[in-house]
Write a structure and sequence with these properties.
By secondary structure, this protein is α+β, with helices and mostly antiparallel strands. 34% of the residues lie in helices and 29% in strands. It contains six helices and eight strands. Strands 1, 2, 3, 4, 5, 6, 7 and 8 form an eight-stranded mixed sheet that branches. Strand 5 and strand 6 (102-107) form a beta hairpin. Helix 2 packs antiparallel against helix 3 (71-82). The two termini are 14 Å apart.
Length: 175
């Protein structure tokens, strides 16, 4: 997206070195395919704890799959269920250490969980750099997240960008 402050790793091997400026905001959407076209809608269950027909369908199919003894039918039911699962994205305000600019990093639940693990292990996640790499490994290893061994203090310019990142209205930007 030209001019957008939102960055997302798009291809295997891409990486970004950054400093978190604040905690994440999230959004959950359903991508429902009908007649070859996708309809995108916010998930009321995840976003506002309200009933959601897509989630009800998803969980109903998952329950049906668990009770299905035939492995082929079970697999088909699970595949159908995937069409109704909500996709959750997390948006972190960051300073990109490669260009020193305030940005919003769009990423996945597994990356957010890795930040939580670092925090719980005693890392100061808001005062050191991290390197995120798209590895395309299985499930939670689709992205690698490591503290940067070359973490250095922010420059005066980056400190200004850091404050800018902290003040970004993420919800408005992801709108």
């Amino acid at each position: 997206l030209t001019g957008s402050p939102i960055v997302k790793l798009q291809k295997k091997g891409e990486s970004i070195t950054f400093r978190l400026a604040a905690g994440a905001k999230f959004e959950a959407k359903h991508f429902i395919k009908e007649d070859g076209k996708y309809t995108v809608s916010s998930c009321p269950k995840i976003m506002n704890n309200l009933p959601c027909s897509f989630c009800e369908t998803f969980f109903g199919l998952i329950k049906e799959a668990k009770e299905e003894p035939d492995e082929n039918k079970k697999k088909a039911i699970k595949e159908e269920a995937r069409n109704f699962k909500a996709a959750v994205s997390f948006y972190f305000p960051i300073v990109d250490r490669q260009d020193g600019k305030a940005k919003i990093l769009q990423t996945t639940t597994s990356v957010r969980t890795k930040f939580e693990d670092f925090h719980n292990a005693g890392y100061e996640v808001l005062s050191q750099d991290f390197v995120l790499t798209r590895t395309e490994g299985a499930a939670s290893d689709y992205y690698s997240l490591l503290p940067s061994p070359k973490s250095k203090p922010l420059t005066k310019e980056e400190e200004i960008e850091y404050e800018k990142a902290k003040g970004m209205d993420v919800e408005k930007l992801i709108g």
